[in-house]
Amino acid sequence: MISATRIIRRNALNGGEIVDRIVLDHGDRHRRRMAMQGVGGLAFLLDLAEPTVLDDGDALMLEDGRLIWVEAAPEMLLEIRAGSDHALKRLIWHIGNRHIPAEITADAVYIANDHVLADMVRGLGGSAEPVQRPFRPEGGAYAGGHGHNAGHSHGHAHGHGHHDHSHD
To answer: Domain UreE urease accessory N-terminal spans what residues (predicted)?
Structure first.
């Protein structure tokens, strides 16, 4: 089976023969080694040096130089909004205390669909509506990946020391 051993980030992609594409959710875009099959049927082994987050629009380079396009699959998420910029910042602070992956846009925050967090957001005066869209969470200051959107969902690489907020 042919292997994909390199990632070409979308901002560095300039040409190359794209022969297939893979559509992966957020969890499946954080991998090191995994057998994969493209939408067009091309089977290959993802074989990277270390676990890495594949971003929407990246490409995987096969051993023979051909490319596999990476697409973020639509997922069920919560779209969180607030009545003002300040109110949205306050909600972001509360969500951040939960240490969960979050995608922050200019006027909304997206997190995995979770009824407990939806109730918390509504209790704080925000809106939390289920939506289906690709999930592109922030990388986080401690995620590694050389500053590139490396996911924070697979544990913490930093110590918290003592803190007294609840994670329930």
So the answer is: 1-68
pLDDT tens for 21-39 read 999 999 899 889 999 999 9
Q: In CATH, what number is assigned to the domain containing residue 100? A: 3.30.70.790
Q: Structure pTM?
A: 0.71
* Domain count across the chain: 2
Domain of 128? 74-134
Residue pointed to by tokens 């109110």? 87
Burial string for 141-168 (b: 16+ CB within 10 Å, else e) reads: eebbbeeebbbbeeeeeeeeeeeeeeee
Q: How many CA atoms lie within 13 A of 157 on its CB side?
A: 12
Same domain, 79 and 128: yes
Q: CA-to-CA distance for 41 and 28, rounded, in angstroms?
A: 18
| pLDDT tens per residue across span 123-132 | 999 999 999 9
Q: How far is Cα 19 from Cα 31, in angstroms, rounded to an integer?
A: 21
